Amino acid sequence: MRVAVFDAHNDSLTEREDLNALAQRLNDGHWDLVRFAEGGGRWQIAAIFTPPRFSGVEALAHALHHLERALEWINQNRNKVRLVLRRSDLQDDGHIGILLSLEGASPLMGRVEFLRLFFRLGIRCLTLTWNHRNELADGVGVGEEAGGLTEAGRAIIAECERLGIAVDVSHLSERSFWSLMQVARKPVFASHSNFRAICDHPRNLTDAQAKVIAEKGGVVCLTFVPSFVGGDLTKFLNHYEHGVKLIGAKALGLGSDFDGCKDPVVPDASQFPQLANALRERGVSATDIRRLFHANLLRYFRSVLPS
Ligand SMILES: [Zn+2]
Predict the structure, then answer these.
(1) Cα 192 to averaged position of ligand 1 atoms, centre (Å)
(2) pTM value?
(3) Which of 157, 130, 133 is nearest to 144 (CA)?
(4) What are phi and psi of 9, to 5 degrees?
(5) If you measure from the C-alpha of residue 258 to the centroid of ligand 1, how many angstroms do you get, rounded to a whole number?
(6) Distance from the alpha carbon of residue 257 to the mean position of ligand 1, in angstroms
(7) How far is CA 142 from CA 110, 139, 176, 177, 203, in A?
(8) Interatomic CA distance for residues 41 and 293, integer angstroms
(9) How far is CA 227 from the centre of its chain?
């Protein structure tokens, strides 16, 4: 069963050395334009990831370098892809819509004006942290000492909401997550996280976290990373079923983490139809599969992006 796909997270634009290669069908990695289109791909959130070894101006320089590469790639491939900047860019016109996200806010150096600049440069999602601490908050890797949002973090959240940048809670420590929930006025989403109730991994969400994301109108996007799934595709389906029981079919999406992990439970971007078939075999309705594959994320981004 082929269904249009809105994938909430991949790392291809940071991980690939030669972005031009992404226009061809590649034999390595998980994602390129040909395989994604084959799999039904229509919208892709592409991460500009900043590794933890960079901080301050080095983080900023790294992000700007990769953002420029990404924008140039989008421009070179404008017959196939379009950069999604506002709600109307989400319409399905035969192009693959690319939403650019900053994964880890260290390039912002805690400064609201840098967020505004990244917005002008096309960034429409902000994953507040990776696993370590940055100027805004603490990631899941910080452990017991993890704290809440910083003052700079609160100011940047308010500015994200004003501008129309989606706030992503994947990688956030629990304490930073709950601190964010106290100040967030707009819905937030988790771009690539599963359920701790099914696989007890710190990168996964507790039931309480998933519930509050859904109650506020956000989406939990399930990921194919084997260590967060805790098994193979069958186990992935257990995460989906748990999610439906907990928060309903209207609050779930997909966030592959293609090119950001090893051996994803869906092997590459051409294989989304196989996932749809597996869900069908478990008795999931075609309507709920469309919700999971794109409809919920479309609704979410139509509510968050600038008009
Ligand atoms: Zn990640």
Answers:
(1) 7
(2) 0.97
(3) 133
(4) -165, 125
(5) 10
(6) 7
(7) 18, 6, 11, 13, 12
(8) 9
(9) 17
Fold of 5-304: TIM Barrel (3.20.20)
In 16-173, where does DSSP find H-type helix?
Answer: 33-38, 56-76, 112-120, 151-163
* Cβ atoms < 10 Å from Cβ of 278: 17
Cα–Cα–Cα angle for 89, 170, 37, nearest 5°? 40
Rounded CA-CA distance 57/70 in Å is 20
Q: Which two tokens stand for residue 43?
A: 């919208």
What is the CA(283)–ligand 1 centre distance, in A? 30
Tokens of 168: 């992503």
**Chain position carrying tokens 């229509």:** 42
Residues in the chain: 307
Task: Count Cα atoms within 13 angstroms, Cβ side, for 258.
Answer: 30
Residue with the two structure tokens 């601190």 = 179
**What sign results for the dihedral spanned by CA atoms 23, 13, 123, 254?**
positive
Ligand 1 centroid to Cα of residue 86, in Å, is 24
Read off the pLDDT of residues 171-224 as tens digits, 9 standing for 90 and up: 999 999 999 999 999 999 999 999 999 999 999 999 999 999 999 999 999 999
Interval between CA 259 and ligand 1 midpoint (Å): 10
